[in-house]
UniProtKB/TrEMBL annotation:
Compositionally biased intervals (Basic and acidic residues): 1-13, 21-30
A family per Pfam: DUF4193
UniProt name for this protein: DUF4193 domain-containing protein
Region feature Disordered, mapped onto this chain: 1-51
Provenance organism: Nostocoides veronense
Amino acid sequence: MATDYDAPRKTDDELNEDSIEELKSRRVDKTTSSVDVDETEQAEGFELPGADLSGEELSVRVIPRQADEFTCSRCFLVHHRSQLASDKGGVMVCNECAA
């Protein structure tokens, strides 16, 4: 909060004159001045420039799993055999998931 050091300050007598009701009303006024913002609603209305990808087409060539690769049973990613951490009963786990 910014403080204006050039503004006239209240004396001790003026500070003692503030009533409890006046102080309570100031506190209530501060709490009611806050605005409730729905972040989800605000984010839905915000659109990045160039973010419209509806006209784009994705083409990816899929290569089948090779003989020296395995599929991790935890993360379901295909890894090279050098990344195999454990193979218990056909359940293969990669180094990253085993850590």
